[in-house]
Design brief:
Elements (H helix, E strand, L loop, with lengths): L2 E3 L17 E5 L7 E4 L5 E2 L1 E9 L6 E8 L2 E9 L5 E5 L2 E5 L10 E8 L4 E6 L2 E2 L3 E2 L6 E2 L3 E4 L18 E9 L5 H8 L17 E4 L3 E4 L6
Antiparallel strand pairs: 1-18, 2-16, 2-18, 3-15, 3-17, 4-14, 5-10, 5-16, 6-7, 6-15, 7-8, 8-9, 10-11, 11-12, 11-13
């Protein structure tokens, strides 16, 4: 198993595209500083799909994905509450999707979608779709866009608090500027062939990490 420290505390890594296939980010402690900032050239989003995999034993609320603009700190946010509900925020308008079987100490595959034309958003957890919910419609998410893993942006690029921080493991983060099909979502969740994200691509990810963030090879099945 290959394990190496990406960054020492309070040190920033240069953003260069890296193929993280077969690897995972590790956030080993609760802090108000440690995070990964993801870089994209896309600065106007009329639709969004975000997919990721997560593992944690946190019982409190925490942030899985935070996209902010100067006009909306929760331009696109995925948040897991302490009531075992996953919420999506779009341009500061949010709602929780109830009835999700989000277990501790288990790898979960999660995808969330939103389309500005209809205003509809949906959550997929481990292959199961949620109800469709009506969010902000008719307007795009416009930059400058800042995307963060590990913390919740309460201001553009900052405003982190330890109470919303993530501690655990994240992997296979992809983002598209359109709503991908249910078949593509299922392929992602079943680790089959799918079209990589055109906004964020885990296989060519440009990122900066601040604080104690580790990267490790994913554990493979012994079979």
């Amino acid at each position: 198993m290959v394990l190496f420290l990406l960054l020492a505390m309070l040190t920033v890594c240069a953003a260069t595209p890296q193929d993280l296939s077969g690897k995972k980010f590790i956030f080993p402690q609760e802090t108000s500083t440690a995070h990964v900032r993801l870089t994209t050239t896309k600065q106007d989003l009329r639709a969004v799909t975000v997919c990721l995999r997560s593992f944690t034993d946190l019982q409190r609320g925490y942030t899985l994905f935070s996209l902010a603009t100067p006009s909306a700190d929760n331009a696109f946010l995925i948040f897991k509450s302490d009531k075992n509900e996953v919420g999506i925020w779009v341009r500061n308008q949010g709602a929780y999707f109830r009835g999700q079987n989000y277990k501790l100490n288990t790898w979960h595959s999660l995808c969330s979608t939103w389309d500005s034309a209809s205003g509809l958003a949906q959550l997929w957890l481990d292959g199961k779709p949620s109800n469709l919910r009506l969010f902000s419609s008719g307007s795009s998410i416009s930059g400058p866009i800042i995307i963060v893993l590990g913390q919740d942006q309460d201001s553009h690029g900052g405003g982190f608090v330890i109470e919303d921080s993530f501690m655990g493991m994240l992997s296979n983060v992809h983002m598209w500027d359109y709503v991908i099909s249910p078949c593509e979502i299922q392929n992602y969740m079943e680790d089959l062939s799918f079209t990589p994200g055109n906004v964020l691509n885990w296989g060519a990810l440009e990122f900066q990490a601040i604080g104690t963030v580790l990267i490790e090879d994913e554990q493979k099945s012994c079979n």
